[in-house]
Amino acid sequence: MPLWLREHSWRQTLTAVYLSLPLRGARATPANIFCSEQYLKVSIPPFLFEAVLYAPIDDTNSTAKIGNGNIFFTLYKKEPAMWDSLTLANADKEKLQYLRENAVLKAQEKAKEEMEAKKITKQEHKKYALEATMKVEEAERKRIEDLKEKERQKVTKELELWKSQQKDGDKYKSIQNKRELHQEIEPLKERKNEKMNTTQIPNEGTSKTRLKSTKGSCSIFSQNLKEEQLPAPRAAATIKVNFTPRVFPTALRESRVAEEEEWLHKQAEARRIINSDLSELEDLKEEEKNPDWLKDKGNKMFAMGDYLGAVNAYNLAVRLNNKLPLLYLNRAACHLKLRNLHKAIEDSSKALELLTPPVPDNEDARVKAHVRRGTAFCQLELYTEGLQDYEAALKIDPRNKNIEKDAEKIRHLIQGTMQSS
């Protein structure tokens, strides 16, 4: 039976009520206090304080401070007025029960609304983070494209400059060849004229033949001279080009090297395990060797009530990848259904070990792990250890009324066992 705390002192103003409650040596936490608009409860086993307030209060802004062996409440009134008493007088059991249940229902609805609002805020934050990441990636992609375009323009300009230099060089070589040819032909013409002046004029037939032979020799000389001026052909060579080996098809500048290396490491580890230890997986398909696929299969079997098949699926997934905490957490739930309590405790402890560091994203998983391990302890009649797990779950999620009720039941069981002993 709980011991009722009757000793308390209070004072009031038009807008607030100040209540002091002695603890009698008991240690209180915020989880031991429950307050709504018209209902106040302090449960510190074996002590209990319960009050149905005279008028509604603003439970959102009201505060409670624990210190020096007392709990000091500052309760702000919804409507400024002086109360005749702290609690509602002349209230029968049915009315008190109605007010108590109504307060609990309102608190549950409020907690549900806050949870929904928290989820919406979390989704908005994720959406904003995704949009920001997309913007950063788009800006990076645009920067890379601009660099490519600048490099392309630079190479195009260099190529045009090289072509113009080649044309100028060819023109200069042709002019130089013509000049050298002209310099070679001029002495020949002068020698020919000198010979024609010194010799007599022959007959018409011989002159024609000499002229023809001179013209022919001149044309042959000029042709040989042109052939000598031609440049030598270029030497052939082989250019070897090396490329950086890439496992993924994306370019190195657009890839995430750390994530790709981690993925490759995990795949290599999974293949090593399959080749060395899991000879029974040789006949399975490729997707059936995936731990995530096995986890989903185990979840479906658990939903259908095939707990032993779910355990087998989780066992195989754990052998493929023993770093996923959800595999141990789900297998612990199956062991609870199959009454394998020691295995449930081991899997829950392993899941909690992997769920580090504690962050908001793994709060739900940590709460489930504590509750499942606490349930297994209680079914083994280790109520003290079970209560520790439930209190740890309440620290993570203090507004979960179901966990609070179960913890309260375990406290009563511990108190009953102590009294019977």
Automatic annotation (TrEMBL):
<dbReference type="GO" id="GO:0007399">
    <property type="term" value="P:nervous system development"/>
</dbReference>
<dbReference type="InterPro" id="IPR037894">
    <property type="entry name" value="CS_DYX1C1"/>
</dbReference>
<dbReference type="InterPro" id="IPR007052">
    <property type="entry name" value="CS_dom"/>
</dbReference>
<dbReference type="Pfam" id="PF04969">
    <property type="entry name" value="CS"/>
</dbReference>
<keyword id="KW-0963">Cytoplasm</keyword>
<dbReference type="GO" id="GO:0005576">
    <property type="term" value="C:extracellular region"/>
</dbReference>
<dbReference type="GO" id="GO:0007507">
    <property type="term" value="P:heart development"/>
</dbReference>
<dbReference type="InterPro" id="IPR019734">
    <property type="entry name" value="TPR_rpt"/>
</dbReference>
<keyword id="KW-0175">Coiled coil</keyword>
<keyword id="KW-0966">Cell projection</keyword>
<dbReference type="GO" id="GO:0036158">
    <property type="term" value="P:outer dynein arm assembly"/>
</dbReference>
<feature type="repeat" description="TPR">
    <location>
        <begin position="367"/>
        <end position="400"/>
    </location>
</feature>
<feature type="compositionally biased region" description="Polar residues">
    <location>
        <begin position="196"/>
        <end position="214"/>
    </location>
</feature>
<dbReference type="GO" id="GO:0003351">
    <property type="term" value="P:epithelial cilium movement involved in extracellular fluid movement"/>
</dbReference>
<feature type="coiled-coil region">
    <location>
        <begin position="88"/>
        <end position="154"/>
    </location>
</feature>
<keyword id="KW-0524">Neurogenesis</keyword>
<dbReference type="GO" id="GO:0007368">
    <property type="term" value="P:determination of left/right symmetry"/>
</dbReference>
<dbReference type="GO" id="GO:0005634">
    <property type="term" value="C:nucleus"/>
</dbReference>
<protein>
    <recommendedName>
        <fullName>Dynein axonemal assembly factor 4</fullName>
    </recommendedName>
</protein>
<dbReference type="GO" id="GO:0030331">
    <property type="term" value="F:nuclear estrogen receptor binding"/>
</dbReference>
<feature type="region of interest" description="Disordered">
    <location>
        <begin position="195"/>
        <end position="214"/>
    </location>
</feature>
<keyword id="KW-0539">Nucleus</keyword>
<dbReference type="GO" id="GO:0036159">
    <property type="term" value="P:inner dynein arm assembly"/>
</dbReference>
<dbReference type="InterPro" id="IPR052004">
    <property type="entry name" value="Dynein_assembly_factor_4"/>
</dbReference>
<feature type="domain" description="CS">
    <location>
        <begin position="3"/>
        <end position="87"/>
    </location>
</feature>
<dbReference type="GO" id="GO:0043005">
    <property type="term" value="C:neuron projection"/>
</dbReference>
<dbReference type="InterPro" id="IPR011990">
    <property type="entry name" value="TPR-like_helical_dom_sf"/>
</dbReference>
<keyword id="KW-0677">Repeat</keyword>
<dbReference type="InterPro" id="IPR008978">
    <property type="entry name" value="HSP20-like_chaperone"/>
</dbReference>
<keyword id="KW-0802">TPR repeat</keyword>
<dbReference type="GO" id="GO:0120293">
    <property type="term" value="C:dynein axonemal particle"/>
</dbReference>
